[in-house]
Specification:
The chain is of the alpha+beta class and about 160 residues long. About 40% of the residues lie in helices and about 20% in strands. Helix 2 packs across helix 4. The longest helix is centred in the last third of the chain and has 20 residues. InterPro entries: Asp23.
C-alpha cells in the first residue's frame, strides 16, 4: 500500500519554482584548495629529531626500545620516533616522550628544554597546536659506564 502525500498540483508547482540553494560547502584547508593530513608518524619523527638536538639527552625510549634501537643502528637504520608517542587530532597534538639524560645535567632543565623544542618544532613545522608534552625520564647515562665497556674490549691495534 502506498500513501501519497503530494497532489499532482504540488508536484507541478515544485517543477516550476526554483530549486532551493544548497548550503555552500565548507572549504578544506586555509585557502579552500584542499585539505592537508599529517600522519602521526611524521609528527612523532619531528618531535624525535627536535629532542635529540637537546644538550643532555643521551637517548630516547625505555630499556627495551633502546636495545632494539641499538640493533637497528648496527644494520644502518635509525628510528627517529623511538621513545616518542603522539596523539594527533584535527588541529591539536599531544606528545609523550621517554628519554635518558646524561649525568650530571639537571633533569628538570633537560626536560624543560626538550619540551620547548617539541612545542616549537611541531607548531612551526606542522602548524598544529601542541596541547601537552609529557616527559618521562627513565634513566641517567653515566659516562663512566662507557669507559668500563671500552676497557673490556680487546685493543684494535698492537
Amino acid at each position: 500500500m502506498t500513501t501519497q502525500t503530494q497532489t499532482p498540483a504540488d508536484v507541478a508547482a515544485m517543477k516550476t519554482s526554483p530549486a532551493p540553494m544548497a548550503a555552500p560547502a565548507q572549504p578544506k584547508g586555509k585557502d579552500g584548495r584542499g585539505a592537508t593530513t599529517v600522519d602521526d608518524a611524521v609528527v612523532a619523527k619531528i618531535a624525535g629529531i627536535a629532542i635529540q638536538e637537546i644538550d643532555g639527552v643521551h637517548a630516547l625510549g625505555g630499556g627495551a626500545a633502546r636495545a632494539l634501537g641499538t640493533l637497528r643502528e648496527k644494520v644502518g637504520q635509525k628510528d627517529l620516533t623511538q621513545g616518542v608517542s603522539v596523539e594527533v587530532g584535527q588541529t591539536q597534538v599531544a606528545v609523550d616522550v621517554t628519554l635518558v639524560v646524561e649525568y650530571p645535567h639537571p633533569l628538570q632543565d633537560v626536560a624543560d628544554r626538550a619540551r620547548d623544542a617539541v612545542y616549537t618544532a611541531i607548531e612551526d613545522l606542522v602548524g598544529m597546536e601542541v596541547t601537552e608534552v609529557n616527559i618521562t625520564i627513565t634513566d641517567i647515562h653515566v659516562p663512566s659506564d662507557d669507559a668500563e665497556e671500552d676497557a673490556n674490549q680487546e685493543p684494535r691495534v698492537a
